[in-house]
């Protein structure tokens, strides 16, 4: 069958489930924030900033990423960051997005938890009013920091839990298994939050990390998680529990060349529930949702029907109420019907 066209991917109603707000910081906004806060980066051009963006694995990416994080100081900075991302993806027909944020990256350099989340929450409300896009927040713990630091962060979040839908785990996986954070994830679940976590590609002990995430920590999704494919018992468990995998074609292509050609099709063939996402578009050649879908399509020759299924997976996996979910699914069905992929109503 013919792969989905660019215009099809652009018009598709979408949901995003794996994007790091701090990773959406584009060079243009970096310069604005640097000027506002008197940071030396204010004298650089966008091209100069972009020229410094090269990474080949997780540690080299994180070094770059943490440098950008330092530019975020005030509530307005966090507002501008979140509003810019939501405005951008609303223009790509993203109806709903769940955004990761990493409070510890800010609190450890003296920015208050309240400053971070108040700016973000205000932007979410304004973007919904201005562009109709709905969003929720998933608070991630930094895995190379201590379990005590994660616990403290969760305590700081308690007054803001109504603005947070779930918790996640990200950053440097080496030597930092999911089990290290079992207690804080238990607290989060008891407080009614959802749980997801990163299982990055080809990490040390990756299969044990995936097993812990699924069996010991009760992760409802896996962020990346491609190494599931190496172990039939993990594939069977993920399939049985309909665990959604948030696949990110841009970083996959960089970290494991050929991944989009091989792994996306292999996940589909294995009966896994996958979604396609951007991850850190500000640092990844501005590959937002539509561009990420194009990379997935180019790699795996995704047909229009498969793309609609992937989008449906994302709405089904979203941590929202049933009424809201049905609204999105109805819009997706309308689109599929117009494209001749469903019988007329
Ligand atoms: Zn990620």
UniProtKB/TrEMBL annotation:
Database matches in InterPro entries: A_deaminase_dom, ADE, Ado/ade_deaminase, Metal_Hydrolase
GO molecular function: adenine deaminase activity; zinc ion binding
Cellular component terms per the entry's GO annotation: cytosol
Keywords recorded for this protein, A-Z: Hydrolase, Metal-binding, Nucleotide metabolism, Zinc
HAMAP family: Adenine_deaminase
Function of the protein: Catalyzes the hydrolytic deamination of adenine to hypoxanthine. Plays an important role in the purine salvage pathway and in nitrogen catabolism.
Family, per entry: Belongs to the metallo-dependent hydrolases superfamily. Adenosine and AMP deaminases family. Adenine deaminase type 2 subfamily.
Protein name, as recorded: Adenine deaminase
Lineage, highest ranks first: Bacteria, Pseudomonadati, Pseudomonadota, Alphaproteobacteria, Acetobacterales
Name of the coding gene: add
């Amino acid at each position: 069958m013919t792969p989905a066209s660019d215009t099809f991917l652009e018009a598709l109603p979408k949901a995003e489930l794996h994007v790091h707000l701090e990773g959406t910081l584009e060079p243009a906004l970096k310069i604005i924030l640097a000027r506002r806060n008197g940071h030396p980066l204010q004298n650089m051009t966008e091209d100069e900033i972009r020229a410094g963006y090269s990474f080949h694995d997780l540690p080299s990416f994180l070094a770059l990423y943490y440098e950008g994080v330092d530019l975020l100081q005030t509530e307005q900075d966090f507002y501008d960051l979140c509003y810019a991302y939501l405005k951008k993806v609303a223009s790509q027909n993203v109806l709903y997005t769940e955004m990761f944020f990493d409070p510890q990256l800010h609190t450890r350099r003296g920015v208050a938890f309240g400053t971070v989340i108040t700016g973000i929450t205000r932007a979410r409300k304004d973007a919904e009013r201005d562009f109709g896009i709905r969003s929720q927040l998933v608070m991630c713990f930094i895995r190379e920091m201590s379990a005590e630091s994660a616990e403290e962060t969760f305590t700081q979040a308690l007054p803001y839990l109504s603005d947070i839908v779930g918790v996640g785990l990200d950053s440097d996986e080496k030597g930092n298994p999911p089990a290290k954070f079992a207690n804080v994830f238990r607290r989060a679940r008891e407080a009614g939050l959802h749980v997801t976590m990163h299982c990055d590609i080809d990490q040390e002990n990756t299969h044990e990390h995936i097993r812990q995430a699924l069996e010991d920590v009760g992760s409802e999704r896996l962020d990346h998680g491609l190494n599931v494919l190496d172990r039939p018992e993990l594939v069977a468990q993920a399939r049985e529990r309909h665990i959604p995998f948030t696949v990110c074609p841009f970083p996959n292509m960089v970290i494991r060349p050929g991944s989009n050609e091989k792994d996306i099709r292999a996940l589909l063939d294995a009966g896994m529930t996958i979604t396609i996402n951007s991850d850190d578009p500000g640092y990844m050649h501005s590959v937002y949702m539509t561009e990420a879908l194009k990379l997935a399509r180019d790699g795996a020759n995704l047909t229009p029907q498969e793309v609609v299924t992937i989008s449906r997976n994302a709405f089904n996996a979203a941590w929202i109420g049933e009424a809201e979910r049905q609204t999105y699914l109805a819009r997706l069905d309308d689109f599929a019907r117009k494209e001749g992929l469903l019988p007329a109503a």
